[in-house]
Amino acid sequence: MITLLADGRESTVEGMVVPHGVTVLGWERKPHGWCRGDACLPSFRAAAAETGQGVDLAAFAGLLGRPVVADEEEGVVAVGEPAGTAMDVAPEFEELTRLRGRKVALVFWASWCGCRYDLPAWDELHRELSGHGFSVLSVSLDREPADAREWLAGTDHPAVVDADGRIAELYNVINVPTVVWVDEAGRVARPQDTMTATDTFRSMNGLSSERAVAALRRWVVDGEAGTTLRELRAPTEDECLARLHARIAAWLLRSGRTAAAERHLRTAAGLAPHDLAIRRGLLPLRGVDPFGEEYFALREELETAGIAIYRPLPDWQETA
């Protein structure tokens, strides 16, 4: 048996070739092809993944444009979202769907980031602007939900912990803090932006929370998003593969298989050296202080290589 990590769930399959008659990645075999809801993959296309023994999981995922990383020695395979996925329509997840009809600021944060201290300020904005049809939805990138809970205690806004990294994958979030605005119809109004709600760490990030919050208010109250989707960062193939290696690494770390996990983490870092959501985000699972020497060595590595740690959009930084 092999553990399958896909679509935010953990399940088991008999092997990399799934026997006939079994649903594959939510798709069901019908006489005319493989179907999932109203979408169908015709038989002539699916034939490339079908064998006498069943369906080749990696080949089938490839037909769907979904990247795959398999570690058969460790008995685990991860399947991700397609590379280069367009985000003009905000990718859905349950907590966001509940807020359809409202403007939403998706606030990505983590307990391993100083942005955890901004949560009370985001919560206050949620309460202040609620009457304008606005909600904050915070998304913690903590791999252990318990690490996020203490920072969420006493807050009123809706929140979710993205322990398997799927929401970060859907929105191509590579560091925190990151904020994405979603309008009432579920469209992205502002793509990935480094925004803060306080100036607690302005000496490190150089960002004005006053200007960020003013831009948010202009959008909520006056409907001025102030930017376009030209600024959107779609994931590259390497970024998608890095996230799958990280997902497998987290699964291995939880089961105590440190050496195998480190191998996948090294591969992830090579594919996406700029992805701090992976490289810093998995430090706690490794038993490493995410505010310690290893993190500051990582910052120095990225700065020396000319890789941006914070990626604010340019439109709101000049005017309060």
From TrEMBL:
InterPro entries: AhpC/TSA, Thioredoxin-like_sf, Thioredoxin_domain, Thioredoxin_ResA/DsbE_sf. GO terms for molecular function: antioxidant activity; oxidoreductase activity. CDD domains: TlpA_like_family. Pfam families: AhpC-TSA (PF00578). It comes from the Bacteria. Residues 62-218 form the Thioredoxin domain. Coiled coil: none annotated. PANTHER family: PROTEIN DIPZ, THIOL:DISULFIDE INTERCHANGE PROTEIN DSBE. This is Thioredoxin domain-containing protein. It comes from Planobispora takensis.
